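Escalation from tier 1.

The customer reports that the assembly of two entities below gives different structure tokens on two consecutive runs. Tier 1 could not reproduce it. I'm attaching the input and our single run for tier 2 to review.
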Amino acid sequence: MAKVMIFKRFERFWHWSQALLIFSLLLTGFEIHGSYHVLGFADAAQLHTLAAWTLIVLWLFAIFWHITTGEWRQYMPTRKGLWAVAHYYMIGTFTGASHPYRKTSKAKHNPLQRLAYLFFKLMISPVIWVSGLLYLFYSQWPEAPSTILSLQAVATVHTIAAFTMMIFIIGHVYMTTLGHTLFSHINRWLPVTMRLMSPAKSPDTSGLRFTR
Amino acid sequence: MPKALKTGSEWSGIPFSGEYDFIETTMHWPITHMVAPADQALDCAACHSANSRLAGLPGFYMPGHSSNLWLNRIGWLAVLLTILGVALHGLARRFFRRRREHH
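Tier 1 run:
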């Protein structure tokens, strides 16, 4: 019997630092947007820019990692089992059915996750990056784009993407609790010593780790 | 002196009577180049906030000052509905689990 580390060290580093950066970006971003006052505009803008550049660097490493390890295949959409997973979240989780998907290192994400994360990687993130960089370099815009593009349009797209990101995160964080126990999904992302205990009495026999 | 005054008034087209005198004048020079003292210096939020010194000026977009009312309404509503959705889903899970445990 061997416990398998489904998410590798780099993956965890990437995931958690990305989480921290995205939370900082959302917090500072909506302050710049004028939704509330916590840090003050100056600090919020400075931190937002710093976190954005850090996340861009992190993403470059992550893209390199996905390509070189072939892990990008984890996000290839599949229809097989998609309905079973959707059905589980809509009905099975209430009737006490067990999760229809078994994670392995070869296929870490269930079909619904693949779609969600692909949407995150190919839609939300690129839109945020492109609009964000245009926003950041507004004062360096040459004449040409300012006739077709306005700062208002760029800011609107950036804000829509930020709202989408926030909604994604709420759903994402909630869905981590949909495992066999409340924390069995999230524990897979934590070092053994930091695992959270679930209130449920049942032993952890979820598909989180597979045995062989 | 009258020669210079005469030439000057001819050049600028102002009639010159030929009489002249001197008066005391005071002139104020802004040697700080209109820069306010440090404690009155503007911060970012002087412009980048809803009711900033730019309030009422049209024709530009400025983060923190301008934002789309409807975009904000729809955005926050969507966030709120998501929170409500997951809260209801979570409560329903709890409810059905308890019912299963009791039967």
